[in-house]
Write a structure and sequence with these properties.
Layout lengths: L14 H12 L18 E10 L5 E12 L5 E8 L4 H17 L5 E8 L7 H15 L8 E5 L5 H15 L23 H17 L7 E5 L3 H12 L3 E7 L2 E4 L6 H11 L9 E2 L12 E4 L8 H6 L4 E3 L8 H9 L3 E3 L1 H4 L2 H15 L5 H26 L3 H20 L4
Parallel strand pairs: 3-4, 3-5, 6-7, 6-10, 10-11, 11-12
Antiparallel strand pairs: 1-2, 2-4, 7-8, 8-9
């Protein structure tokens, strides 16, 4: 069998290499479906696009964009779009694959997809950002659509960018297609509860995991890496449950307060200054020292590959909640398991965002919208039920929650693949 170059021996700790390792670990638990496992290692469709725009000064700049559809066996593609200077095709492939697993883990009728542009959006004016977003949307318009592939916000993208994407797609198709993206502003068909949904999912799965560990949230010490939408929302909910957030880290700095950071004051500081750095309610600490923080719960909610083998040896937490995608490399996963540190993996822990994106998509099709209370009740039930099935699988096979999540999800994905068959 000829191997495409993209798939040959990925670096073990690269995002795609991490994903491939996770698939390899689950194959022994797939039974007769293992014959289809190679499907999981090959994205169905990969699109690389040039995104040229005219800058405010009249120059023409070119950016490289991607949209990857990993697997569409269970439904249309679903996954965010990120703007970041370190975006690569391999990263987007891995993120799309994790979306496939994530959607199946919570039993949503979606496949996995992901997109991105290699750019530092902070260097663009608002008009340049809009032109880039619209051009990118036009370029990937050949493969997206409400029943084909539905983008959403991710790193450095938000509701405004989704509004531009929806408008561009709608103008190109001649109809207002609210369901082509999720994470939109409320008055354009967005869903209540969507902004904090991912962080809420981290909290709900963390609450259930803590209960099983006998860890009381009231008084629990929490450290959060990545204090963006996901990390801050999770921190707020844990604080409301009586937890004490003692450390927070993002690209602007690392802060610590042994008696607890004031979450409301920190939120105001982040809104004004763009990050946690310089917050008066905590002392600055060395970024690497964050991993030595004495805490009960650690929430990595930044980018991939943050928990290395070396850092895994230093983590003091009893419970790691993966708010980010792929924050733990496989070797570190093994070290944490050996040390008795429970990891609730990204593919279930941060699935709250895509779950409420699904609610938004359904509401757009029906033009009937739910209250935020209804959204949260439905979200909590889906997350709790999904985690219970995963935990039962982990207990039955005596495997980690990550391998159990992949076992549950991959069985669903490959059953769909087998029942659909191969065409032609």
């Amino acid at each position: 069998m000829n191997e495409p170059l993209s798939f040959v021996h990925p670096h073990a700790n690269s995002p795609w290499g991490t994903y491939i390792s996770q698939v390899d670990r689950v194959v022994p638990y797939l039974g007769h479906l293992a014959r289809w496992s190679e499907t999981l290692k090959r994205p169905k469709r990969t699109l690389i696009v040039d995104v040229p725009i005219e800058m405010d000064n009249g120059d023409v700049a070119h950016f490289e964009g991607y949209r990857v559809q990993h697997n569409l066996s269970r439904g249309p593609g679903k996954g965010g779009v990120r703007y970041h200077p370190d975006v690569t095709l391999e990263e987007v492939m891995a993120l799309a694959a994790w979306m496939t697993v994530k959607c199946a883990a919570v039993n949503l009728p979606y496949g996995g997809a992901k997109g991105g542009i290699r750019v530092d959006p902070k260097r663009l004016s608002i008009k340049e950002l809009e032109r880039m977003t619209r051009r990118y949307t036009s370029e990937i318009g050949i493969i997206i659509g409400p029943q084909r592939d539905i983008p959403a916000p991710d790193v450095n993208t938000n509701g405004q960018i989704m509004a531009w994407m929806m408008d561009t797609y709608s103008m190109n198709t001649g109809t207002t297609a609210t369901g082509v993206v999720t994470g939109k502003p409320i008055h354009l068909g967005g869903s209540l509860g969507r902004v904090k949904a991912t962080g809420r999912g981290v909290f709900v799965t963390g609450r259930e995991a803590a209960r099983r560990l006998g860890l009381k949230l009231d008084g629990a010490r929490i450290a959060v890496q990545g204090y963006g939408n996901v990390g801050s929302s999770a921190a707020e909910l844990f604080a409301q449950a009586g937890g004490t957030v003692v450390a927070a880290q993002d690209h602007t700095g690392t802060i610590f307060n042994d008696k607890g950071l004031d979450i409301a004051d920190l939120a105001a500081h982040v809104k004004e200054h763009g990050g946690v750095g310089g917050f008066a309610g905590g002392e600055a600490m060395d970024g690497e020292a964050f991993w030595d923080t004495r805490c009960d719960i650690l929430i990595p909610a930044a980018l991939e590959g943050q928990i290395s083998a070396a850092r895994a040896h230093r983590i003091k937490a009893r419970l790691v909640l993966e708010g980010a995608n792929g924050p733990t490399v496989p070797e570190a996963d093994d070290i944490l398991a050996e040390r008795g540190v429970l990891v609730v993996p990204d593919v279930i822990c941060n699935a709250g965002g895509v779950t409420v994106s699904y609610f938004e998509w359904v509401q757009d099709f029906s033009s009937f919208f739910w209250s935020e209370d209804e959204i949260n009740v439905r979200l909590d039930k889906i997350m709790v039920d999904a985690l219970k099935k995963i935990w039962d699988t982990a207990d039955r096979h005596k495997i980690t929650l990550r391998t159990a999540t992949f076992a549950v999800a991959c069985e669903r994905i490959l059953t769909a693949r087998e029942e659909r068959g191969l065409y032609p």
